[in-house]
Amino acid sequence: MILHHVNQQLKFSLQGMIGNSCIKLIEYYFQSVEGVQLEKVELGKVSLSYDPGLLTPSEIENHFANLEFSVVKDRQEVLFEELLTAIITFINEGNYLRRHYKNSDYLSDKLAVPYNKLSKVFSARAGITIERFLIFLKLEKVKEKLLEDQYTLGEIAEKLNYSSVHYLSNQFKKYTGISPREFKKSPEKCRLTAPFFTAKFHTKNCKFHK
Questions:
Q1: Which residues belong to any copy of the HTH araC/xylS-type domain (predicted)?
Q2: Residues pairing with 11 in the sheet
Q3: What's 25's domain CATH number?
Q4: Considering only 72-86, 136-150, 160-174, 185-199, which range has the smallest mean pLDDT?
Q5: Are 44 and 182 in contact (CB under 8 A)?
Q6: What range does the domain containing 55 cover?
Q7: Residues 93-128: tens digit of each pLDDT
Q8: Same structural domain, 86 and 145
Q9: Structural contact between residues 176 and 192, judged by C-beta atoms closer than 8 angstroms
Q10: Is residue 207 part of a domain?
């Protein structure tokens, strides 16, 4: 007798997805996993269907673990991951969001949670404030633009919504230890902008880029 298994639907919240390269990594990996069909992959979330005759939900979780992504089940942890995704989106989506929204308003509206609660959850999990994290993310984008060598510092300041080139330069040196010009000449001299990344988030497979 042939048994026909009806595919089951599952949704996962994942810790460690911090860039589009993470999405591509999951899509590529699961092409070779028999019995799994990805439905939607976005930062921090994966929806899929699977054949229960071929594998179990725990085995699917093990596949994510192979990629160094952990499945989040705690409610507060899920909120933290959704918040992290929203913050990265706020930085990556360009000038429109940054020019038209305060980060606190955008995050609160996006997640339908009061900002003071979001701030407490993020600080407790990451050991750093949302505001400081946003500074670090913007500086990572500044580094990318500098290394692309396609824009002047003034153009980079405008693209990332800095109030002035002077403000960007001062902030860059404060957190990296060198000026933007020095970074372009010797990027290896730049100290890690956000050392907590390695402790709090998996960054082996993903980098902050769009």
A1: 85-186
A2: 47
A3: 3.30.70.100
A4: 185-199
A5: no
A6: 8-71
A7: 766 556 667 888 889 998 999 999 999 999 988 888
A8: yes
A9: no
A10: no
